[in-house]
Design brief:
The complex is a heterodimer of chains A (322) and B (447).
Chain A (H helix, E strand, L loop, with lengths): L4 E12 L2 E12 L3 E5 L6 H8 L7 E6 L2 E2 L8 E4 L11 H11 L4 H14 L15 H13 L5 E5 L7 H16 L3 E5 L3 H7 L2 E6 L2 E7 H8 L3 E7 L2 H7 L4 E8 L4 E8 L5 H8 L4 E8 L3 H25 L1
Parallel strand pairs in A: 3-8, 3-9, 6-7, 7-8
Antiparallel strand pairs in A: 1-2, 1-4, 4-5, 9-10, 11-13, 11-14, 12-13
Helix pairs in contact in A: 2-3, 2-4
Chain B lengths: L2 H14 L2 H28 L3 E7 L7 H5 L5 E5 L6 H9 L4 E6 L11 E5 L4 H25 L3 H8 L14 H35 L3 H5 L4 H38 L3 H13 L14 H45 L7 H21 L6 H6 L6 H8 L5 H33 L9 H10 L3
Helix pairs in contact in B: 1-9, 2-9, 7-9, 7-11, 7-12, 7-14, 9-11, 11-12, 11-14, 11-15, 12-14, 15-16
Classes of the chains: A alpha/beta (322), B mainly alpha (447).
Chain lengths: 322, 447
């Protein structure tokens, strides 16, 4: 039977001396997907990533890689680009890339061949003998990306991969990520950039205060958080429009583009169809567009974090009252 | 290639390729050569051939000075009694290397003051002292001659050229031992300290430039730490070997340039010492005191070398691992932008104390302080190394064994401690550096 999940974390607990970094976190990462790992600062994302990388070990629970407990042999099947990343400044680029590739278990000749391929692809072969201290931040980021992917890992963990890149290079890296996915690489993508999450992620998990808050396919989550609202752009009289709302809709937002042009957001008060409203509006106004407004990842993030903080806040308040 | 070897190779290669390493390796043999040769060169340049013109008012002693001179750099010329003052002045004024010695007529009879010495330039205190000694030597011989009526040649034979105290004891001359002891102690102190601090800097460098997390996703923290410590330790051993071999080569070169057969020299001396009571004029090469020191040092080093090469590596490896592990723990717990200097000092205190004790070994190699500190692991690498030249191998070997066993026992504990601290602290950035936090990291780490 084909293995569906590359990573299965089961009730993972990780404690440091004065706080719990992860509390019974369970995450399943489908093979071949781009998986967004989201959460506010200090939520426990980096701790979770470090557990997968075996930099530290969980206190309780288990992480399975292809259904087997994580072990040293898995290290070379994982590529990790940490958020805080650097290189040896005094070392030459090529020498350093060779070192890091060999640390991932590649042979010298294999590493040389693959690195040349990547350097050539990024058109940076002439950097090979330069020292890292002579490179710009963006240039160093490219080298870091290459050494993360050169050993062709099954699982790629990218923590804020676009930070430090200009828009052109961001696009280049984004394309590379998508290409890697095409070739079957599973990618864990940790970022605060919600737009890029929407663009490339298939699944997400949102961790807040050491616990999983949301988990699942991004489309399902967006649907779940969708408020059943519609954005309507029309030319006409606002009074005519408001009169039409008696069909069972509520006006949530109004934006006046000119005296006769408006963008509004409405939501049905009951089980009413949007068709009823449109039928009434078209009698006095010209409709330019109607969209069902889907929830933005940005809003989902804020809402979910706020909701998950609520019980704690209440508890904190009651504690302080005592 | 195993990951440990990869790390080790990188640590080693990047350091030995550094300009500072190459420079130090090239310079240090020259420094040693300089230390050995400088006194000889100084001697040569100061003691340029000087001519002493003697105006002899005693009428008898002027001729004897050339035969009784103690330095080959001096030539005494007794001016003919009939020579005019102009003849003397002419030779004297045309050269700065010519001196005029005006011998009093009472010299040698009732006065031990030879008279006046004239020179146009600056003869230097060494030259004046040598002339003074030569005159005084002659004066004493004359006195012996007047009392004993022996002829001067007989007196010469009886007085001999040099005074030798026969040293009964084990091994090399104690003076040579003292120098060796100090040199070995100092070398050990510098190596342990320099390369220990390098470990700390290496750990901190990885933390500061944030490559640590990338590396730790490929290799276990403890392996990385060991790779670093062993790699840097090997750099130390390489540097150490370069210095030692350069020293041996330079000593050999000096030996061949000076054309000294050290063993023949020593044998000659023994012959002289053996024939007590009989004043046999030993066939000594004409050597300056500095050259004789060099010969002694070569002799000492040759005698000491086998034990040195056998024991010193153990002490160096033990001492280095012990201190390197403390430095690695400190480096891992430090933050790149915080002041680490004040935390280094307490770690270096034991090793500084051991160097101070090493200085006392020259005076009293068998004191209790030396004995116990050469066993105590924090001080033994330096103190025991300094003690080595004074140890009697046949009776004291067990002390060496205990010292090394204790040292490596402590190394086992300290490296385990360092590994635990390193594992936890290396990825912590926000925490303030303090011994308490280092201890916390140790407690928190799972074995």
């Amino acid at each position: 039977m084909a293995i569906k999940y590359i990573i299965k974390a089961q009730k993972v607990v990780k404690r440091y001396h004065n706080h719990t970094a992860l509390n019974k976190v369970s995450i399943k990462i489908p093979k071949g997907s781009i998986y967004g790992l989201l959460g506010p600062n200090g939520a426990g994302k980096t701790t979770f990533i470090r557990l997968i990388n075996q930099i530290s070990k969980p206190d309780k629970g288990e992480i399975l890689f292809y259904n087997k407990p994580l072990s040293e042999e898995h290290i070379q099947k994982i590529g990790y680009l940490p958020e805080e990343r650097g290189l040896y400044k005094k070392m030459k680029v090529g020498e350093q890339a060779m070192y890091l590739a060999q640390l991932k278990g590649m042979s010298k000749t294999e590493a040389q061949k693959k690195l040349h391929h990547w350097f050539d692809k990024f058109d940076i072969l002439d950097w090979w003998n330069k020292k890292v201290e002579d490179l710009s931040k963006g240039m160093a980021q490219k080298i870091q990306f290459i050494v993360t992917v050169v050993h062709e890992p099954d699982l790629l963990i990218l923590d804020e991969p676009f930070s430090g890149f200009d828009p052109i290079n961001t696009e280049l890296i984004k394309q590379e990520i998508l290409e890697l996915k095409e070739r079957g690489t599973t990618i864990i993508f940790s970022t605060h950039n919600m737009q890029s999450v929407e663009e490339i992620c298939d699944y997400i998990t949102l961790i807040n205060q050491s616990e999983t808050v949301i988990e699942g396919p991004i489309e399902e989550i967006k649907k779940k958080f969708s408020k059943n609202t519609f954005d309507i752009h029309f030319i006409g009289n606002m009074i005519t429009f408001t009169n039409a709302l008696w069909t069972g809709f509520e006006l949530l937002k109004k934006e006046e583009i000119s005296k006769t042009e408006f963008k509004v957001t409405v939501c049905p008060t009951g089980q009413n169809s949007i068709n009823e409203l449109i039928k009434n509006i078209v009698q006095g106004c010209e409709i330019k567009s109607v969209y069902e407004s889907s929830a933005k990842m940005h809003d989902i993030f804020i809402k979910a974090v706020a909701e998950s903080n609520e019980p704690n806040d209440t508890m904190n308040k009651s504690n302080s009252n005592e | 290639m195993s990951k440990l070897r990869l790390v080790l190779k990188r640590e080693y290669k990047t350091r030995v390729q550094k300009k500072s390493f190459v420079l130090l390796s090239i310079i240090s043999p020259f420094i040693i050569a300089g230390l050995v040769i400088a006194p000889i060169i100084i001697q040569e340049s100061t003691f340029r051939q000087k001519t002493v013109l003697i105006v002899d008012n005693t009428l008898t002693l002027g001729n004897l000075l050339e035969n009784n001179k103690s330095s080959k750099y001096l030539k005494y010329i007794n001016m003919p009694i009939a020579s005019t003052i102009e003849e003397v002045a002419d030779r004297y004024e045309n050269s700065k290397d010519t001196l005029v010695l005006h011998l009093n007529k009472n010299f040698g009879v009732v006065s031990n003051s030879p008279g006046q010495l004239y020179n146009n330039g600056h003869p230097g205190p060494g030259v004046i002292k040598t002339i003074k000694n030569d005159c005084f030597d002659l004066f004493r011989k004359i006195q012996v001659f007047r009392l004993t009526n022996l002829n001067l040649e007989e007196i010469d034979n009886r007085l001999g050229d040099a005074c030798n105290i026969q040293y009964e004891g084990v091994g090399v001359n104690p003076e040579v031992k003292s120098y060796l002891s100090l040199a070995v102690g100092l070398l050990m102190y510098l190596l342990v300290l320099i390369y220990g601090v390098q470990v700390m800097k290496g750990v901190l460098e990885e933390k500061a430039n944030r490559i640590i997390e990338i590396i730790l996703s490929s290799i276990k923290p403890v392996k990385l730490m060991w790779g670093k410590i062993i790699g840097i330790g090997l750099v130390g051993i390489t540097q150490f070997s370069i210095i030692i071999f350069a020293a041996i080569i330079i000593f050999s070169i000096v030996q061949s340039v000076l054309d000294i057969d050290a063993s023949a020299l020593v044998n000659d001396q023994i012959m002289m010492m053996d024939s007590e009571g009989k004043f046999i004029k030993a066939n000594l090469p004409t050597l300056t005191p500095e050259q004789i020191d060099t010969v002694y040092a070569i002799e000492g080093l040759q005698a000491f070398l086998p034990t040195f090469l056998l024991v010193i590596p153990f002490l160096f490896i033990g001492g280095f691992l012990l201190y390197a592990s403390f430095f690695a723990a400190l480096g891992s717990a430090a933050n790149p932008d915080t002041e680490i200097q004040q935390y280094i000092l307490p770690i270096t205190v034991p090793i500084i104390i051991s160097m101070i004790i090493a200085f006392t070994i020259m005076e009293n190699p068998n004191s209790e302080l030396v004995y116990y500190t050469s066993m105590f692991p924090l001080t033994s690498p330096v103190v025991m190394a300094s003690r080595l030249p004074f140890m009697n191998w046949e009776t004291d070997w067990w002390q060496l064994v205990i010292s090394i066993v204790l040292l490596f026992g402590t190394v086992w504990l300290s490296t385990r401690f360092a590994a635990k601290v390193y594992k936890t602290a290396i990825l912590m950035y926000g925490q303030k550096l303090s011994y308490r936090n280092i201890w916390k990291s140790f407690k928190q780490s799972k074995s």
